[in-house]
Automatic annotation (TrEMBL):
<dbReference type="InterPro" id="IPR006015">
    <property type="entry name" value="Universal_stress_UspA"/>
</dbReference>
<protein>
    <submittedName>
        <fullName>Nucleotide-binding universal stress protein, UspA family</fullName>
    </submittedName>
</protein>
<dbReference type="InterPro" id="IPR006016">
    <property type="entry name" value="UspA"/>
</dbReference>
<dbReference type="Pfam" id="PF00582">
    <property type="entry name" value="Usp"/>
</dbReference>
<dbReference type="InterPro" id="IPR014729">
    <property type="entry name" value="Rossmann-like_a/b/a_fold"/>
</dbReference>
<feature type="domain" description="UspA">
    <location>
        <begin position="1"/>
        <end position="142"/>
    </location>
</feature>
<comment type="similarity">
    <text>Belongs to the universal stress protein A family.</text>
</comment>
């Protein structure tokens, strides 16, 4: 039986569905819901203090709003203390893979993607990367 499960959470219905699945499937496991905030600032010169500060301010604003919605969803779905919440920043696929490796999770549960419309028919790049780059069983919820 799995002892420690990472549930990758974003602000999407599939993120909430992944948490519901983990709560139901692994009732005795230690569940950690991780949300990753990411902004694309790869092309900006972060050595310029003004640009760096603007990027951090924007990450704080976006991260706070989205994270708040994600954390509220977790609170609504899980009993107090049933899920540990972790907030990460950076490239989602890289941060999730690093977190799985460093924390020694026994498994991962995540949505197949955070999109809708026709794009929802394909597996997301973050989900695909986590499946490919980690050595633990990963369950994709759709």
């Amino acid at each position: 039986m799995a002892r420690s499960i990472l549930v990758a959470m974003d602000d999407s219905p599939l993120g909430r569905r992944a948490l519901a699945y983990a709560l139901e499937t692994f009732p005795d496991a230690h569940l950690v819901a991780a949300h990753v905030a990411y902004l694309e600032y790869d092309m900006l010169p972060t050595d310029t203090p003004e640009v760096y500060e603007a990027a951090v301010d924007e990450l704080d604003e976006v991260g706070d709003e989205t994270a708040q919605r994600v954390f509220e969803a977790i609170k609504e779905m899980a009993d107090d203390g049933a899920v540990t919440v972790s907030f990460l920043t950076g490239e989602p696929e890289e941060r999730l893979v690093e977190y799985v490796d460093s924390a020694g999770f026994d498994g991962v549960v995540m949505g197949t993607h955070g999109r809708d419309g026709v794009a929802r028919l394909f597996i997301g790049s973050v989900a695909e990367a986590v499946v490919r780059k980690t050595d633990v069983p990963t369950t994709l919820v759709k």
